Amino acid sequence: MTVTENVSLKSFNTFGIEARARYFVRVQTTAELHDVLANPVYRPLPKLVLGGGSNVLFINDFFDGLVIKIDIKGITVLEETQQSVRLEVGAGEVWHDLVVHTIEKGYSGLENLSLIPGTVGAAPMQNIGAYGVEIKETFDSLEALHVESGESRRFTNAECRFGYRESVFKHELKGQYIITSVRFNLSKIPVFHTSYGAIQDTLREMGIGELSVKAISEAVCHIRRSKLPDPAQIGNAGSFFKNPEIPKAQFEALKAQYPGIPGYVTSPDFVKVPAGWLIEQCGWKGKVVGATGVHKMQALVLVNYGDAKGQEIKALAEEVQRSVQERFGIRLTPEVNFL
Q: Which residue of 16, 21, 211, 248 sits 20 to 30 Å from the alpha carbon of 149, by its own alpha carbon?
């Protein structure tokens, strides 16, 4: 483990934004993480934890503290029966690599979450989800180190207080813990989720007649690749905004004014509206603003077309928010963290 100084973070965030860190370190074990947190040189400094860098936007050119890149790896079977398996996975494992691993083993539960960028440790922080499935449905528990005390603590599913793209780590415990491993309960008897989005149509288009976890994963990957730009080609952080949940009465009023507005009932009182649809209706889809823009295939994705500054992308996001607010009376909330 080596701590380096004045390190560029451009290659550590999927937006490809240039920023520098006063100190930077990669940790490959929990013991290394404990040691660097306890080091008196770095102990008083602000700390930034990076996984895949797929959910951050650097709006400042310099981070005057310690950036910790989590590279803790490993996939271990803790318990296995004829019906199920419990895995423990290092926080530094690439999320999609884990999904591929489970599919190859015939484990069900993560296939709808294929190709989501980022690492395993970041996944429970925002309760990642896609195509009708959220991580909380297979999540067992996680291990995390307390930044100040260095003590390890296990958090159960209930203690994480999962919500829509939410967890306790984004609110009461924000910045207090660093996740080191995550446990999942997966099934060997799959229950397929194909009703959300275009999965069923895509399966038909691909000529897949027999359902399997692999087939669903392939369909999800096909959909995502057709809609979302590859960060290696165009800087982006995937979905920039959450899909807003609005009161049912507000949705009905909007439905009367905009008959084509899509919505998904999430409770007796609330309806989820696709943020991408709202943004597209405001004329943003495919629009280029300087070195930034809204992707031509998916209005939910803001992109860096060149050497854009984080502040430029933030300004674009604020303009998108303003236009949606003015037209629909809905305030979009970013999924991306501004740093």
A: 21
Active site includes 212? Answer: no
What would the pLDDT profile of 283-324 be if each residue is shown by its tens digit? Answer: 999 999 999 999 999 999 999 998 899 999 999 999 999 999
CA distance 66 to 44: 10
Q: What is the pLDDT of residue 228?
A: 84
Per-range mean pLDDT, top range of 153-157, 197-201, 209-213: 153-157
Q: Are 101 and 94 in contact (CB under 8 A)?
A: no
Which DSSP state fits 158?
H
Question: Residue 121: its pLDDT value, please?
Answer: 95
Whether residue 143 lies in the annotated active site: no
**Catalytic residue (one of 108, 141, 167, 239):** 239
CATH code given to domain 235-338: 3.90.78.10
Q: Among residues 22, 43, 165, 224, which one is catalytic?
A: 165
- Catalytic, 226? Answer no
Res 286: pLDDT:
95
Burial class (CB in 10 A: 0-12, 13-18, 19+), 86: middle
Residues 103-116: pLDDT tens digits? Answer: 999 999 999 999 99
Q: Which two tokens stand for residue 11?
A: 């290659």
pLDDT band at 14 (very low <50, low <70, confident <90, very high): very high
75-187 has CATH 2.60.40.10 classification: no
Domains in the chain: boundaries:
4-70, 75-187, 235-338
Tokens of 259: 């008959």
Strands of the chain, DSSP E: 4-8, 20-27, 47-50, 56-57, 62-70, 75-80, 84-90, 129-130, 133-134, 139-146, 152-156, 177-187, 235-236, 245-247, 264-265, 270-272, 288-289, 292-294, 302-304, 337-338
Residue identified by tokens 């949606």 is 324
